[in-house]
Amino acid sequence: MQATMFYGPEDIRWEHRPDPKIELPSDVVVRVTAACVCGSDLWGFRGFHPEGDPRPIGHEFVGVVEEAGAGVATVKAGDFVVAPFVISDNTCVNCRNGVQTSCLHRQNWGGLDLHGRQIDGCQGEYVRVPLADGTLVATPGQPGKELIPGLLALSDVMGTGHHAALAAGVGPGRTVAVVGDGAVGLCAVLAAVRLGAERVIACSSHADRQAVATRFGATDVVAERGDDAAAVVRDLLGDTGADCVLECVGTEASMDQAMATARPGGRIGFVGVPVGGSQVRIGPMFQRNIAVGGGVAPVRAYLDELLPEVLDGRLDPGPVFDLELPMAQVADAYRAMHERRSIKTLLWP
Fold it and tell me: pLDDT tens for residues 220-255?
């Protein structure tokens, strides 16, 4: 098969890889219907991670099961499946507590399985899925192509935005500010609207992203950044901060902006990957009674709730994909996102 390999900063290659096969009874092999590039993939592309050996990359995909191991009970050949960005058994104590990203048997796409075998990255034609029963969620039937972008968003960014909203206590009557206008931030806007927030303020200085935020239901858009943005939010809300702030970037500056934006007694839900020095300042939290929660989103925990709404059209995070390319052009997809010419790029096989 052909698949994407990461060789180092700005070095993404589409090349031949061994065809995946069933290695363990709990495995399945999936033919990828669609995959995508994640903002977190760009950290390595930009040189923030040690290079190491070339490795398969990608952690978001949907597809069709081609073959299932003898021990797999919940999916079968021919099923269309959504794959969360972390592999989990969905049975250990942490999974039962709804934190599948801390599964005691957690494995990562592109890493090694529990027996030291290579796991495929998801930006390729086929993927071997370990712990398939715990990881994959099948749809009731074969979805039409128009639903694929929304279903693909459930593998990461929609569930991550939803996690930020839950961590910040978003609900009916709440005022919400979203820091970050990438795919996760835009999905956080959509999640806050879905949860009944009274007012949702998107912080974005890019016209294309502002348009998606408005389409998703943002009531206001603030183009300023940092303390200036926080001041505008306070002005919009009658000289007080937001009840809930969703931090979807992962830098020190974005967390400082979130802290300045929250009202006394407010809550911050953070899901931005803290690469590059994200810090939480305890002093302002203590003085203003601000609660901070969040972390790696256990999207598997949210699929049973969100999947039916995507399938019946009540929820559509698909517009975060503003560029579609053949998977063979994956290097162009990385460059487009790195240069901010694309919010999120969908890859078709």
Answer: 999 999 999 999 999 999 989 999 999 999 999 999
Q: Which residues pair with 35 in a beta bridge?
A: 61, 347
**Is 254 in the same domain as 213?**
yes
Tens-place pLDDT, residues 309-341:
999 999 999 999 999 999 999 999 999 999 999
Same domain, 212 and 286: yes
Question: Judging by beta carbons within 10 Å of its beta carbon (0-12, 13-18, 19+), is residue 264 exposed, middle or buried?
Answer: exposed
For the CA atoms of 270, 273, 278, 281, what is the dihedral angle to 10 degrees? 20
Residue 220 half-sphere exposure toward CB, CA atoms < 13 A: 21
162 and 286 in a single domain? The answer is: yes
Q: Is the pTM of this model over 0.85?
A: yes
Phi first, then psi: what are they for 329, rounded to 5°? -100, 30
| Residue-number span of the structural domain to which 151 is assigned | 2-156+298-348
Q: Do residue 90 and residue 191 come from a single domain?
A: no
My answer on whether 290 and 304 are in the same domain is: no
CB-based burial label for 297 (10 Å; 0-12, 13-18, 19+): buried
Q: What is the CATH number of the domain that holds 228?
A: 3.40.50.720
Find, among 322, 302, 83, the residue nearest to 195 by Cα. Answer: 302
